[in-house]
Amino acid sequence: MLPSRYDGWGAVISEAIMVGTPAVCSDRCGSAGVVRASGRGGVFAANDLDALTALLRRLMDQGSPSPDQRAALARWGRRLGAGAGADYLRAILAFSDRGGDRPAAPWMVGQEAAQCPAPSF
Q1: Is the pLDDT of residue 118 over 90?
Q2: Domain annotation covers residue 42
Q3: Residue 118 counted as domain residue
Q4: How far apart are CA 66 and CA 110, in angstroms?
Q5: Which end of the chain is more exposed for a tag (fewer CB within 10 A), N or C?
Q6: pLDDT per residue over 6-65, tens digit each?
């Protein structure tokens, strides 16, 4: 969980997802888009204790993810690793240099949402 009022990224979010642990962060955290794209965990409005409480209650009511769901999330999380980041940076630099299609962030490619059903809130 990263309940930031401001955080440029929040590496702990990537680290959690990469090992199959659903993450929770505020909407002021740079990695909130990753949490949303993962289909697991959740994002709440910063400074809104009621929203955080409601999100945590929903997640607790859902129970722990199964081993298969954790494995699927960890597989999805590979797109957050160093190799994916390096490839993304190279694509950004090539785009900056030569134009063409703007590169998509690795966590947005395909939008498989961790190949597991998204929680129904």
Answers
A1: no
A2: yes
A3: no
A4: 23
A5: C
A6: 888 899 999 999 999 999 999 999 999 999 999 999 999 999 999 999 999 999 999 999
Interatomic CA distance for residues 11 and 26, integer angstroms:
14
Residue 114: pLDDT above 60?
A: no
User: Which domain does 59 fall in, by range?
Assistant: 11-78
> What whole-number distance in Å separates Cα of residue 70 and Cα of residue 18?
10
Residue written as token pair 């409480």:
53
pLDDT on residue 8:
87
User: Could you tell me if residue 41 is inside a domain?
Assistant: yes
Residue 120 in domain: no
User: What's the pTM value of the predicted model, to 2 decimals?
Assistant: 0.80
Radius of gyration for the alpha carbons in the chain, expressed in angstroms and rounded:
15
